Amino acid sequence: MTEQRTLAYWQQMAATISIEGRAFIAGDYRHACSAETFDCISPIDGRVLAKVASCDSADADLAVSNARATFDSGIWSRIPPAKRKTVLFRFADLLMQNQHELALLESLDMGKPISDSVDIDIAGAANSIRWTAEAIDKIYDELAQTAEDQIGMVTREAVGVVAAIVPWNFPLLMASWKLGPALATGNSVVLKPSEKSPLTAIRVAQLAIEAGIPGGVLNVVPGYGHTIGKALALHMDVDTLVFTGSTRTAKQLMIYAGESNMKRVWLEAGGKSPNIVFADAPDLRAAASAAASAICFNQGEVCTAGSRLLVEESIREEFVQMVAEEMAHWKPGNPLDPETNVGAVVDQTQLDTVLGFIAAGKEGGADLKVGGEQLHKESGGYYVAPTIFNGVTNQMRIAREEIFGPVLSCIGFDSAEQAIEIANDTDYGLAAAVWSSNLSKAHRTAKALRAGSVWINQYDGGDMTAPFGGFKQSGNGRDKSLHAFDKYTELKATWIAI
Questions:
Q1: Residues 123-132: what's their mean pLDDT?
Q2: Is 395 helix (H, G, I), strand (E, B) or coil?
Q3: Which residues contact 68 (CB under 8 A, 6 or more apart)?
Q4: Same domain, yes or no, for 74 and 148?
Q5: pTM, entire model
Q6: CA atoms of 41 and 1, how far apart (whole Å)
Q7: Are 225 and 328 members of one domain?
Q8: Each residue's pLDDT tens digit, 204-239
Q9: Angle in degrees, 0-180, between the axes of helices 81-97 and 171-184, rounded to the nearest 10
Q10: Strand, helix or coil for residue 347
Q11: Structural domain range at position 310
């Protein structure tokens, strides 16, 4: 731990940081057209961080029209891909040069531990931008196999104006997964951050200008989903809508797209991911440690959280005790303390939601093993103890609905077939994990699971080279990897007679 990254360092920085709350349109900050604002409240202690522009349909029209004009001008869309790559490299470098400021904004805004903000969120965002930028001049178009007197070309073209609606749990990282390929392919973007955590998106818009991205290419419009989010989804001049968030909102966005211009809609929605532990797991203690991490990391506010722990009955009681012991290392505390590994949940509404699910688990007959209570009420912030329920059935509410908090449901099974049946008995299909030293059983189980990502003898593996997205009501499309470019480009077939 360096001297710079102490609790005192972050507290001093928090006391002096300048926070911008205005929208960013056409290369400059501006108030919402209505001049309306909303309070941005820190979940650390309940204090107001800033007044943030509350954008609506008028701001959507302004941002989209500027994005369209910028796209049509070709100042970004028609320059060589290698030049866009160079600019995006500078953008990534600026994210890292401002890493501490951005990390602090992230932690103040949504309550995550500062060490995670620095080392995971901001570093990951910069890596995402850099990775997709590096790829853009390595992706080749195609020539079709044609008759001697024909040439058939298949080319990728930028879709045009992209509206990106991103969640509050990983504000900048999730935005970067969309901004990287969208900008690299030459599109103009209107970014709508969550009203629960808009501050880093607002700040990085200025860094994009400093990097050399022309004004109008990246616009940021903070506000509520039912105002600015709805306006973007219904806008007739938005070509593609990309979204990460709840399944309920994702469904509504699909309706809006159909009611407007049939814009392309790519959705990454909720999850209720099964973490399956067989008795022959190669290291039960390592599996228990991973199970605790899978539900406690980021306060459980993770779409891929391992919220359903499926354990073979012959070891269930022993293993649940191991998980409880490992969970004791995950202690909610001040997010600005670098030693903290569990921060505050994002706001009072989310705290009430998590506590409501805990109450439902108790009422439903599940055995509360660990946690279950609100912590640090005196701080004015929103903290909840990591919680384990044992003896859960897959029909209980806590096993079926996405909680988005550190609440783990432990379910027993007797065979691989039963584990697969329970794991797949969900509306979601985002992620899953399998722990077994029997490679054949692990592969067979993984193949049978209806999930976009399956991890074997680990939880939450992968990097930028692997696609991320879900099956079923966890959405469509993929973030990360070369597959992400499909969302931001159209394929054109051109036939030439020779």
A1: 98
A2: coil
A3: 160, 161, 188, 237
A4: yes
A5: 0.96
A6: 29
A7: no
A8: 999 999 999 999 999 999 999 999 999 999 999 999
A9: 160
A10: coil
A11: 274-463
